[in-house]
Design goal:
There is one protein chain. This protein is α+β, with helices and mostly antiparallel strands. It is about 45% helix and about 20% strand. The chain is built from eight helices and seven strands, in the order αββααααβββαββαα. The strands form two sheets. Strands 2-1-5-4-3 form a five-stranded antiparallel β-sheet, sandwiched between helices.
Length: about 230
């Protein structure tokens, strides 16, 4: 038989409900605070953060994305890469996203393209979003503009290559040269003896110009007074 609750029991139940409501409000406020803090952190990260669904539609982009690509982040939501980028680059991005979602493996990808006449290079870390059942429901990424850094590296590599090429073209005389005490010929690394001027010309960039020193001039041409 149903027993009608007493006034004290009703009062206790009301008190419990009020405490539950108060706890729910507290939890909701904590969640809002956490979401606000997370939003602040994400929006102040220099890298471009984005989240897309499995169809390539944007669910979220941060302030850096909006600033770097010059587009309202609220307009991007619900759109795909073809709304932001030229067709060739958009296709490349979508192919990368599809591969990562199918493999369920995160990747760091260097992505290049032209946007508003500028050649851009980005290092983008893309991570598949997987639910508790192991199903992929989207992709998250953070990209960093490395255009300037990459240009410097490419210029450095080009300079190193040019310097190496120049060094390869320069022939230098190194080590000890076997020199005949009488005829003054030089023995090369193959065992052949050559005149000093011939050897120097082969193994350096120097051009030989024959002349005569003062001692030899006095000995061989005493009447000419060449150095007088």
């Amino acid at each position: 038989m149903y027993k009608k609750p007493t006034y004290e029991e009703l009062e206790q139940r009301v008190k419990e409900l009020e405490e539950e409501i108060s706890e729910l409000k507290r939890v909701k406020q904590e969640n809002r605070d956490s979401q606000h803090l997370l939003q602040e952190v994400i929006d102040n990260i220099e890298g471009e953060i984005f989240i897309k669904d499995t169809n390539g539609k944007y669910l979220f982009v941060n302030n850096a994305y909006e600033k770097d690509y010059g587009i309202d982040k609220n307009e991007v939501v619900g759109k795909d890469d073809f709304f932001v980028f030229p067709p060739e680059l958009a296709k490349q991005l979508q192919e990368n996203d599809k591969r990562i979602m199918e493999s369920k493996i995160a990747e760091m990808i260097e992505e290049r393209g032209v946007l508003r006449g500028k050649h851009l290079i980005y290092d983008t870390n893309k991570v598949p979003l997987i639910d508790e059942n192991g199903d992929v429901y989207g992709i998250c990424g953070i990209g960093f503009d490395i255009t300037k850094k990459k240009r410097i590296e490419e210029e450095r590599e080009k300079l190193i290559e040019e310097l190496q090429k120049t060094l390869d073209e320069i022939k230098t005389l190194r080590g000890i040269l076997p020199l005949c005490s009488f005829c003054k010929k030089v023995r090369d690394d193959k065992g052949y003896w050559e005149q000093v001027d011939v050897y120097i010309h082969k193994h350096s960039q120097a051009d030989i110009s024959h002349s005569i020193c003062p001692e030899c001039a006095k000995e061989h041409y005493p009447d000419l007074d060449i150095y007088e």
